[in-house]
What we know:
15% strand, 12 strands, 6-stranded antiparallel β-sheet, 4-stranded antiparallel β-sheet, alpha+beta, 15 helices
Amino acid sequence: MNQNLIHLLANNSQIEINDLNEEYEILNPWNDKSVSFKFQKGKNLTSIKNLQFPEQLVALFDSESKSLEFIYGIIEKESKLKDREFDFLYKGNIFKCRFGKISNSLNLLAKSFKERTADSSTDYRNLRFLRDVLTDSFYKEYFKEHFIASFYVKGNFENIDHDYVGLSKSLNFYMAYFDRNTPKILIHAKNFEEEKHDKACLYELFDTFPGLISAVNIDSTLLDTFMVANQTENIRLKFIFYFQILEYASYYYLDGKIQNKILKTFKNPAIYDKPEDFSKSLIEELKDHFSQKDDSIKLEKTITENVNIEDIKNEISANKDFFCQDLEFEGGLKINRILKDANSVENLKDDDLILIKKNIEKIRNVLVHLRESRENKVILPSQANNNKLLPYLFVLRRIAEKVAINFQ
Length: 408
């Protein structure tokens, strides 16, 4: 095998190198299955032998020059970005940052890039566009007045334990602080073994779509909130929006005793003769309710009086293996299991809604306030945590739907 590729493999344990008849094929750079490279045998590959592929970045690290090259794209020749250059002091170390022409190594990789999948969540690390600009006559002509650029960060990365992601996050923050239109460094999630969760559906449960849907008049604010929650792709935001529906309904919650008192008051034939007496009586009844600071109790009553366990049993049953285990998020937050085991779904009772409410509320509080009030525990914004949120998101959505339908 080519000695330069042997050196490249030693620096990147995740890649695979195949020796084909007339070509060398490199698979899985950045641990990204959508990207590959093919080189004709006999081609000079010296420029790539010292490269490393940081998994979460659209970048190359050259261990010889100690330079991190972010794969950017094109810049208009008159743009101020082209000449942007600055020093960045990070954890006591100076890093030289600048935009510049793409390196010989990136030029070689881009021209040798091959797609391995029909689409790519990482957008092929910007290599498909860069390849076309470098090799396709149409793109060459179209972008002839542009500058093909990379963003370089050079310094002693050993002093920061090669924390490329931490450095990149800090760079993003400060570059945006000084220039709201600055290009952002793309940071992708680490690959992880994604657990599949079943999105329970009433249509599937009854094996038919209803021929007649009897709609109730749902509050317009709730409908608008549902629309926003359904449109957003961010799982954490979805969770917060669905929870806001419960908060909105619980704000207007009145327990049965107070409701009955109000109804009896309005039905009393003497109300028109002595309105001041009845108004004082109503004020006394409502005083304690509206001075009550524990919104959590109102939320609990809103759920338990508008939702039955049967309403959400389908969502729990669909992911019963998930709900029979204690849940721990990256960041340390722990959530108690709902089920004793996978076979105990049918044993759920309405009283179990209180535990489910507590779990959902705890998750929401950490998503909004970044930490649990009694513990320094968080839910880190990672893909793995987003995946763990899904089963509770499905349950929360069904609870919010039932509350909205019953909300008066």
